[in-house]
Each structure stands twice: as C-alpha cells, then as structure tokens.
Amino acid sequence: MGPRRHELIKIGGELVTQHLRGPYAEQVRNALSGWRDPRAKALRRRRKAVRRTKLWAGTGVTTGAGAVVVDVAVANPGGGVAVLIGAAVVSGVAAISSGVSTWRLHREPLPEPVAAPVALPGRGSAAREPMRRLTEAEDTLREALTQLSRAALVPPDAVTEARETGAEAATALRAVAARLQVVERAREHAPPLERGHLTESVRRLAAQVDEGLDGYGALVAAAAHALAASSTAAPTHALTDATDRLAALASALRDLTQP
Fold this sequence. Notes:
The protein has 2 domains: 43-107; 128-257. The chain contains 8 helices and no strands. It has 259 residues and is an all-alpha fold.
C-alpha cells in the first residue's frame, strides 16, 4: 500500500505542476504583479485613509449627538455627558488628522502601473536574452521617470514624452522579436538549401533587436543622468534628445514589422 500511495501522490503532483504551467500560472503571476504594483499600493492606502476618516467622523457625530440627547433628557447631567463630549472631541481631532492625511495622499501623484509580466521567448531563441534585458530596462526607466516626476527635476512634458516613447519602443521591439521567433521555428522545418537564407534572416532580425535595445538603453541612461544631476538645463536637453532618437528608431522598427 505504501508504494502505491507514493505513486498516487507523485501522479497528483505532476498533474498540479502541469496545470500551473498553463493559464493558472499566468493568472497567479498576474495577481502577484498586481498586488505588488506601486500604483495599486498607493490606491489601497488612499481607500484605507478614506475609510478611517469616515469612521472617525461618524464616531464624532454619534458621540456628540449622544451627549446632546443626554443633556436634554436629563435635568442634571452627570459624568456620562462629559465622557460623551470628550469622546466626541477626541473623535473630531482624529477625523481632522485623518482627513489631512487623506488629502495629502490624494495630492501625491500615483506611480505608473507596472506592466503585466510578459513571457520570455524560448531558451534556444536569439530573442530571449534581449527580451529579458528589455524587461529589466523597462523597470529601471519606470522608476527613474517616477523619481524625476516627483522631484520636478525636468519639465513634466519631457517625462511624459519619454514614458510614452519608451512604451512605444518596447512594443516595437517585441514585435520584431516575435517575427524573429517565427523565422527561427520556420528554419527548423525548412529544407537544407533554404536554412542558410533563413539563418541570415535570423541574424538580421537579431541585429535590429540589439540596435533597438541600445536605443532604449540610451533613454534609460539619459533619465538616470537627469536624476543624478543638480541642474535642470543640460539633463532636460539630454533626455529630450534621447527620447527623439528612440522615437525615430521605434518608428523604423514599426515600419519593419508592418505588412
């Protein structure tokens, strides 16, 4: 009975693993990413602050109204009225303090939402390592631009343009990487005489991905320089220049992937 039980447990574990490798794993990754998202955390803090303010305000109104009712109903109010009034005062102060905190939280700009995790290409693909580096570069650029926005080191328009250009370039790079993977798979099924031409196409597409990734890295570096600099004139120019160059590169990549 023991070996059979061990075998059943093993089979059950394999079935669970197979399910987790499918859409369930993607759902778990997306849920964890959403929970860890700085924007989601900020929104949760705002909702919590609003609930706290409403709670203290409601407590203050209730205790204050109770004190008035007791005062009117009893000819000679005793210590209970004083306790209710004191509780109303404490609740009112807490409600005001919580309201100020809520106001400050709503004034702070929300962080940019973290993009949903993207599955990397297969281990044998030439696109896997560039796409892994692109994911890390996106996280770094997002953090750098968020810090620039909070510290007001560069004009808001420059940050917005850099953020939008970075997103467009990342989309274009992933489109080229997807085409690269298709050509790689086709090469495996092609006749021997055709594989040489497809191998050359793979190299060309990989070079385009590397070029686009270098341009994206230049934007990340410009954002980092702007964040580290004490003055705003030169860093703003460098960030704008890197944004323009990446925008042109992203446009060229989109032209390559369009029919």
